[in-house]
Amino acid sequence: MHEMALCEGIRRVVDQAANRPDVTRVTRVRLEIGQFAGVEKAALSFAWEVVMRGSKAEGADLVMIDLPGKALCYDCMEEVEIPERLSPCPRCGGGKLLPQGGDEMQIKDMEVL
Amino acid sequence: MSQERLIEIETGILSQNDAHAARNRARLAELGAYAVNLVSSPGSGKTTLLCATIRAMQAAPNAGPVAVIEGDQQTTNDADRIRATGAPAVQVNTGKGCHLDGHMVGHAMEHLGLAPDSTLFIENVGNLVCPAAFDLGEDAKVAILSVTEGEDKPLKYPDMFTASRLALLNKTDLAPHCDVDLDLYEANLRRVNPVIEVIRVSARTGEGLDRWIAWLRGEAAAKRIRMAAE
User: Fold this and answer.
1) What secondary structure letter does DSSP report for B115?
2) Residue B15 contacts A, CB cutoff 8 Å
3) A9, A98, A112 member nearest B194 (Cβ)
4) Going residue by residue through chain B (230 aa), what tens digit of pLDDT does each one get?
5) Model's pTM, two decimal places?
């Protein structure tokens, strides 16, 4: 969707966290991305290289940790994990599921020198 | 040589947007205003429906103030159309941006000089993908889907309909000419969001506008009761 804008959001947070005298360089940033967050990972990686230029995190590795998509099934009323947004309920086969998470877009941590 | 070490961050990527949205939400609460974020594809009839809605609201005996923030990449056409109804409107041009964000809406709210107890309509950029992720501080997202778009639109772009509390199925006057199944639209909406409410409307004939306006009034009244109880 708007991976460039997401990267600019990441840069703001990373710049702020790295803005201290004992950090000379950021070598790796880890994100947690939910299955339903709508993030195109390849596009985010591409935008990452461009957006981080000139920052302490220029050239840093970007690691994306996948978080599962969870949904509440309105047929069996159980919370289940589903691989795709439109997957049927793995328990009862029902088709009416409301996501209960999986839209996370979080900067978890970073490694610095 | 210094050692590599880990700094915990645990911050949302959109945390800056969310902070702006929280400020907007607090400002709306101070004013007793109720805000909806109108989301849809381009061409769903958002602005026409909004003009018809505002005219119908103004014609009601207990009409409260209404204001509009219009988001588009370019032009002030939509804000001009809204102002012709007499309602104040601010146009936000996002330039290359594909969505409104909390910061833009905060600025627009300042320009509007929102009256107490207003109903604020925020017409987002016509786009069924990006605006789903950006909180603007609104009370509810309302998706507008026109009957010419195809019954499977909610399945193709589920996130927006999952994020919306209400879907307005617009242009129902065209349904007889389009070989579409309105019940299938509703079934597909409920497949991606089992709790979404659906109202069938036509900006052209006025069908359903009374139900849509009653929904807005009910939601605004419920917000005021909630806030008074806090």
Assistant:
1) P
2) yes
3) A98
4) 568 999 999 999 999 999 999 999 999 999 999 999 999 999 999 999 999 999 999 998 888 899 999 999 999 999 999 999 999 999 999 887 889 999 999 999 999 999 999 999 999 999 998 898 899 999 999 999 999 999 999 999 999 999 999 999 999 999 999 999 999 999 999 999 999 999 999 999 999 999 999 999 999 999 999 998 98
5) 0.91
> Per the CB < 8 Å rule, is A108 touching B9?
yes
From the candidate CATH numbers 3.90.650.10, 3.40.1400.10, 3.40.50.300, 3.40.640.10, the one assigned to the domain spanning B15-223: 3.40.50.300
Question: DSSP per residue over A13-42, as a string?
Answer: HHHHHH-STT---EEEEEEEEETTS---HH
Closest Cβ opposite residue A96 in set B3, B5, B191: B191
pLDDT in tens, A54-86: 999 999 999 999 999 999 999 999 999 999 889
Rounded to 10°, the helix B15-31/B102-112 angle is 30
Where in chain B are the domains? 15-223
Domains in chain A, ordered, with CATH? Answer: 3-112 (3.30.2320.80)
> Distance (Å) from the C-alpha of residue A86 to the closest C-alpha of chain B?
7
Residues of A in contact with B13 (CB under 8 A): 6, 9-10, 13, 31, 105-107
ipTM above 0.90, yes or no: no
Beta carbons of B7 and A95 less than 8 Å apart: no
Q: How many residue pairs bridge chain A and chain B with CB atoms within 8 Å of each other?
A: 92
Residues 6+ apart with CB under 8 A from B70: B47, B76, B78, B79, B82, B89, B90, B91, B92, B123
